[in-house]
Amino acid sequence: MDLSPKLLLIAAASFFFSAATTCSNRECRLLDPCTSDGDCEVGLYCFSCPQGFSGSRCVRSATTNPFKLVNNSLPLNKYVFLTTHNAFAIEGVSRLYVDTYDFEGDVWLCHSFGGKCHDFTAFEPAILTLKEIEAFLSANPAEIVTLILEDYVQTPNGLTKVFTDAGLMKYWFPVTNMPKNGGDWPLVSDMVAKNQRLLVFTSVRSKEQSEGIAYQWNYMVENQYGDGGMHAGNCANRAESLPLDDNTKSLVLVNYVPNIPVDLAACGQNSADLINMLHTCFASSGNRWANFVVVDFYRRSEGGGTFQAVDTLNGELLCGCNDVHACVPGSTSPACSA
User: Fold this and answer.
1) How do 81-85 and 95-103 pair as beta strands?
2) Are 267 and 278 in contact (CB under 8 A)?
3) Signal peptide position in this chain (predicted)?
4) How confident is the model at residue 261 (pLDDT cuts 50, 70, 90)?
5) How many angstroms separate the CA atoms of 227 and 230, rounded?
6) Which of 13, 215, 317, 323 is the most exposed place for a label (fewest CB within 10 A)?
7) This model's pTM is above 0.70
């Protein structure tokens, strides 16, 4: 019996769908269709991004540790780190850009406005998150954590007290060891050996002298945050920062976060748009790649997302390859695997 063209089309579509969804039990690869996280390979999870694809597919869910993959014998400023914006969590990412405020007689994490924290903008006392960080550093003796604080704490020594109470001072990287005039940072391997594995920056200049907390703008440049920093082809510095191409600051931070974070839009923003902006900011920064890539909803993407963006930049910085996985392990000079 002859089949009509319409029946043939339905049969072909049915075969394609069946073939495309046969993987399971951790066998599904990047962008394969999936029905649950358990279908996807390690390092992937099952996610739906209507801006990028139909249905649910396996996308990246984990960072690549460049210290383990290549080496940790280069200065800190020769690496790129994924950084979360006001995420108030360290799951998967150990670079945090957060806001600190005086609130209810204590230091709180709070995403607020006008220099004041309110009941509806407060997240939690900072001590709780800082204790999580202490537990992470204790359990991972080769890891480095960076905290960049948009700081509204006015209580004298308020930050010092909360870091001390959280047990973090034993990991503190001292301001006296931070480079001036754009010099290289210490080697990561030396920072680990000395257990100086917590970098903390504040937006308040006076606290570098009064509390020994590094003033952010003495050490890094940063592009405009919010919607103003998301215009394709344009990467301007934020008002507090020196121009991005000022090489007296050896760290470069690139924001790619909207004024109002929307989780449903993040998967599109964290994909091709992000990598395009990183290339734009590379040119604006005097051909320097970002050391900190700041995003919202870091696990949402159309595939590789924020993780692939950071892998690309680490590859460029560490070995001149377009992916850190192409770097020859242990290499300290440009060398790509075949």
Assistant:
1) parallel
2) no
3) 1-23
4) confident
5) 5
6) 13
7) yes
